[in-house]
Amino acid sequence: MRRSFLTLFLPLAVVSVLTTAAVNAPRQGFNLFSINQDIALGAQVAHQTDSLYRAKGQLLEKSSNARAYTLLNGVVKRVLDNGNLKYRTQFPWDVQIIKDDQIQNAFATPGGHIYVFTGLIKFLDNENQLAGVLGHEIAHADRRHSTQMLQQQYGISLLAGIVLGNNSNQLVQIAAGLGQLKFSRSYETEADKYSTIYLNGTRYYACDGAAGFFIKAEKQSGGGTPEFLSTHPNPGSRIANIQKSAQQLGCTNRNVSNANFEELKRLL
Q1: Which of 33, 109, 149, 212 is deepest in the core (most CB within 10 A)?
Q2: Is 67 buried (19+), middle (13-18) or exposed (0-12) by CB count in 10 A?
């Protein structure tokens, strides 16, 4: 459902001042958007992303894939309900499945719209790994990394125009490129860490799940670089950092049934 964007954005007279301020702002942790603006931008980008993949016949519709979405949403909900999200009740936190078995990736828009490629789900070995990757993407949205990176890449005034209904061509460009958005070292490290914190909070998943994905992907990359490994820090450092955080939290020995996860893979 598309949202009303009235009163969500700053007066345009202020936008140019904020755009200038952003140039000199710290690159990490500085966000000129309000939470309502995150939600508004995310709704626009998600609507366009849905349209792009639906036009290519790659968006798995919930009406005809109800069981697959029930299984995936079960994992998403456990991760979301970990007790450590800042915007658990504010963001919509919906999930869409994209049919592409060649892409091992997931991404989230500002405001918490999550996209998962079938290639990622089929690549993973167990539900812990899926929860770990989802935790990483949820962290990017909840820690507002996506908005901050888009501010740096496109500028405040352009994003403001999108939310106000302008710059439709740029909206298409943003939606098409969101899955390849390159986060900084600090953003990736923070998302990896929060993935362990989130999974620990579930009291269900082993919280080093994301490390299992990185280990397998690094071994099987065969000279190619999976999307999740295409950013710095290097995969070895990321694996070590995730495992260290999980050990400190004391949540590495949990085992969950993979029956639902295996069913999900079969359905895709």
Answers
A1: 109
A2: exposed
In this prediction, residue 140 carries a pLDDT of 93
AA letter at 219: K
Report the Cα 86 to chain-centroid distance in Å.
Answer: 15
- In-domain check, residue 3: no
**Count of the separate structural domains present in the chain:** 1
Residue 106 lies in a domain: yes
Q: What is the pLDDT of residues 44-77, one digit of tens each?
A: 889 889 999 999 999 999 999 999 999 999 999 9
Within a domain: residue 158? Answer: yes
**Which pair of tokens denotes residue 16?**
């140019």
Interhelix angle for 209-220 vs 127-142, to 10°?
110
248 occurs within a structural domain? yes
CB 155 within 8 A of CB 19: yes
Q: What pLDDT was estimated at residue 230?
A: 53
Whether residue 154 has pLDDT greater than 80: no
Q: State the Cα angle at 144 between 163 and 243, rounded to 5°.
A: 150
Q: What range defines the domain where residue 252 resides?
A: 12-267
pLDDT bucket at 251, cuts 50 / 70 / 90? very high
